Amino acid sequence: MTDPAEADPVTPGPRPRWRRVLIESAATVLVAVLLAGGIRTFVFQPFFIPSASMQPTLGVYDRILVQKAFFSWHDVREGDIVVFRRPPLENCGPQDGDDLVKRVIALPGQTIYSSGNNIYINGRLLAEPYLPNDDPLGPPIPNSSSQHPYRVPAGEFYVLGDNRGDSCDSRYWGPITGASMIGKVVLTWWRNSHPDFHVF
Questions:
Q1: Which of 51, 102, 167, 170 is catalytic?
Q2: pTM of this prediction?
Q3: Domain that includes residue 165, residue range
Q4: How many domains does the chain have?
Q5: How far is CA 137 from CA 46, 116, 128, 171, in A?
């Protein structure tokens, strides 16, 4: 009689192929979702434009990509388009989300004022090739209480919409803090209801 302990162990057969494929597929989907979430959180984030305040550069319902990784407000320059959290003093009507997109016009410590449709930064006329020639400024840029050009406080930025006559911006609620910036617009990938790639 053979001792059961000395008997050859039963070798399990191979797992069904469909089970392995299912596990690999689930793992692949999980990794893709985690990567997509990480990219959205740390690298790039898509936004859509809810208003006409940045026309003609950005139209209503355009889709943009905002750089978040390696972004620092210390590196922001005049003319950059940035997304930022809605300022506490913003009260221009119905809110279209918690974030806004505008163009940086003046940097911390610079002076800014307007005359007619022209804007002056540190006393020099601001060149704005991104605007159409007939773009009216709309409401002027307020001076300081002493009637001198407004000086942007340290760590803050003066922002305007490109559609100056129809934009609620720093003229209404003052400059934004660098800390409120989410990132810089680097790409438009959807415009006028179809794919349209434009790099900034």
A1: 102
A2: 0.78
A3: 46-199
A4: 1
A5: 29, 7, 12, 11
